[in-house]
Amino acid sequence: MDEAQSDPEAVRTYLLDLQDRILVAARDLDPVAEVRKDEWERSEGGGGRTLSLSKGKIFEKGGINFSDVSGKNLPPSATANRPELVGASFRAMGVSIVLHPENPFAPTSHANVRFFRAIPKNGDPAVWWFGGGFDLTPYYGFEEDAISWHKAARDSCKNFGENLYPRLKKWCDEYFYLKHRNEPRGIGGIFFDDFSEGGFDRAFAFLKSVGDSYPTAYLPIVENRANHPFEERHKEFQRYRRGRYVEFNLVYDRGTLFGLQSGGRVESILMSLPPEVIWKYEWHPEIGTEEARLYEKFLKPRDWAGES
Fold first, then answer.
1. 98 neighbors 271 (Cβ within 8 angstroms)
2. Active-site residue set
3. What's CA 99's distance to the chain center, in Å?
4. Cα–Cα distance between 44 and 89 in angstroms, integer?
5. Closest to 141 (Cα-Cα) out of 301, 39, 305, 292
6. Which of 53, 72, 177, 262 lies at a C-alpha separation of 20 to 30 Å from 287?
7. Judging by DSSP bridges, how do beta strands 108-119 and 127-137 pair with one another?
8. How open is the CA angle 102-93-4, to the nearest 5 degrees?
């Protein structure tokens, strides 16, 4: 995995184009959403472009962020599984997307595709790897949405090995899990990190397959649920479940930790958090309700792609 085999500039070009395409697709769906674009620089090296959505008819809040940062020392979140890279200089780039719909019957989604290059301090050759994936967080479950979402995830993996999707689905189920709550954040999708299988060209092709699959997997689900009738009690449950989203991002998420530990732009890092959240003491849904069904049927790992 020496640096001569990688092409960071090709990755950067793809990521910036992906950011633009996802913004266009989101705006096509929700043209009244307010968009703010911020270019920023980081004193230690690099910078990024933050695209924020707010006050839309469909999207209550969203972020489509690009960053390309460098530094002299990889932060602990990036070396937890690679202790040989402690102290290595690095370049990290990626696009991260979080979209929070207004309608509680439309799920929140998250996607991330990223590239790392690190130069060990001991003089060993530079190493590179890709990471990313996408996952879905419904507040009210629809089996057809879960099935289509996971079929899209499976399709994004199909040209890269028949065992790839089951492995990355399992990784996603295990990663987006709140240990202190003993429950998953949502219904998962795929997740991968430290990925360099097949060399740079093949690994990069897989990253592009994942990035390109996300909007076609997610936006039709949102469009289909955006006009579902709801009451204030549904919004209250949405705000309650959004609390789990906050807990995961601030306690476990490696991207959030990397950004904060590397001195990233805080406004961009925390833009993934939902606009309104509530916590309740010792609250549990009543048996037989729509809210209870989320816990009983959806917040458990299932072979969604294998169902019909």
1. yes
2. 110
3. 10
4. 11
5. 292
6. 177
7. antiparallel
8. 150
Class of residue 13 by CB neighbours under 10 A (exposed 0-12, middle 13-18, buried 19+):
exposed
Which amino acid, one-letter code, is at 119?
A: I
Give the strand order in the sheet containing 188-195. 34-41, 46-54, 59-71, 89-101, 108-119, 127-137, 188-195
Token couple for 18: 């992906």
| DSSP code at position 124 | P
Taking all residues of the chain, what is their mean pLDDT, rounded to a whole number?
A: 93
Tell me the C-alpha to C-alpha distance, in Å, between residue 284 and each of 19, 96, 239, 288. Answer: 39, 32, 14, 12
Quick: pLDDT tens for 15-52: 999 999 999 999 999 999 999 999 999 888 899 999 99
- In sequence order, which residues have a C-beta less than 8 Å from that of residue 15 and are 6 or more positions away? 66, 68, 93, 94, 95, 113, 115, 211
Q: 295: which 2 tokens?
A: 């816990």
Give CA separation, 133 vs 71, 79, 148, 209, in Å. 24, 19, 16, 10
Q: Positive or negative CA dihedral for 38, 132, 136, 185?
A: negative
For residue 5, give both structure tokens: 């085999």
User: Cα(first)–Cα(last) distance of the chain, in Å?
Assistant: 41
Contacts of 289 by beta carbon, 8 Å cutoff, 6+ apart: none
CA distance 192 to 144: 25
Tokens of 298: 């959806």
Q: pTM here?
A: 0.93
C-alpha–C-alpha distance, residues 52 and 266, integer Å? 14
Looking at residue 253, the DSSP 8-state letter turns out to be -
